[in-house]
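=== RUN LOG ===
request id: a7f3
mode: sequence -> structure
chains: 1
length: 363
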Amino acid sequence: MAQILQGQAIAFFAFDIGYEVSLDKVGSLLASLPVKPLSRKKKTPNYLQYSYAPHTVYVGEKYIGLDTKAQIYATIFDFGAVSISYRWPLTQNGRGVELAELPVISKTLFDSALEPDAKAQVETLMKRIHPAIVKPDLSSMVEDYFVFVLEKLDVPFSAQAVLEQHRSILAQTLRFDTEPLSVEQQEEALAKPISYYERDMVLIDWNAAVIYDQDYVDTINVLELLNVELLEARYIDGQLDKRIRDYDGLLETRTRFLIPFYSPYRSVIRELAELRIESSLMAERVENALKLIGDLYLARVHLAASERFNMHEWDKAISRKLDIIGNLYQLLTDRLSTSQAQTLELIIILLILIEILMGIFSR
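=== RESULT ===
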C-alpha cells in the first residue's frame, strides 16, 4: 500500500459576516496578507485573477479534530464573507501516513465538532475588524468543505495509476466512509478527474476533494472560493425566501385611499427596490470575485466544482425569486397608481358637484 510522505488535510468553513468588508481597513487593523495572484505554472494568463484579492490572516494553531495540531487561517473576502480553514499535516510523529488510513482521517474530521470552533473564530475575528465591516451581521448559515492533498507518495505514481489502484480508498475518502463503497458509488464519486500533467490530479465531489499534486495552492484557493460562493448563494436565497414570506398576502389586502398621494405601500415598495438591487449586486460581486475564462486548467476545476455544488440550480432559484420580487414591486406600484387615480377622479367629481351646488344655491 502506498504511503503519503507529504500531504495535508484541510477543512473550510464559510460564513457571511455582513454586506461588505473594506480590505484596506482590514490591513490597517491586523496583520493580513492579500492572497497571492494565480501562478503561471499552468499557463494561466495574467488577467485571470481576483477582482479584489481576499486577505488571509494567520489565527494560530491548536489540537482539534486529529491528533496533530491544526494551523488555523481566516480568509476575508470583500463581499462580506470569511472562510476559516484548518490544516493538518498528514504525518504521525514525523512519519508518513498509509494511504489506506485516509478514509478514517476523512470520517474523523467530518464527525468532529469543528463548526462551533470555526464560528467562535469568526466571532473573535469580527470584533477585531468590526470598523471594516459594512452592516455587520453574522449569519447562522455555514458551509463546509474538506480537501485532502497528497503532495508526495513513497512511489512516484502517475495520476492514472493512483486512480486505478486506489479507487475504493479515494471514493471512501470523498464520501467520509470507512466501509467499501459499491462500484456505482465509486463511479459517481470519481466521475470527473481533472489533470494537467501526468503526475497531478484533482477529484472533486459534493463535499470533499482529493488533490494529487505538489503545486496545489491555486486549486485550493479556487475550491475555497467556490465554497464561499455556495454559502452566499444559500444566504441570498434564504433572504429572498424570508422577504417573500413577509410580504405573503400583501396583495390580498384592499386599501381605499382618501388622501391623494398617500401610500401605505411606500415603505414596502422602497424595501422591495432595495432588496432587488442589493441581492443582484451581491450575487454579481460574488460571481465576479475570480476571473476564469476559457477551457484552462483552473477554469475546468472551477466548472467541475460548480457542477458538484449545483451552483447553476442555486442561480436559477435566486433569479426566479428576484423575478417574484420584481413582479410584486410592479403589482404594488400599479395598484398604488390605480388607487391614487381613482381617488383624484373622486375628488374632481366632488369639486364639480360642489361647483354645481354652489351655482344652484347662489341664484
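=== NOTES ===
The radius of gyration is 28 Å.
The chain has a mean pLDDT of 83.
=== END ===
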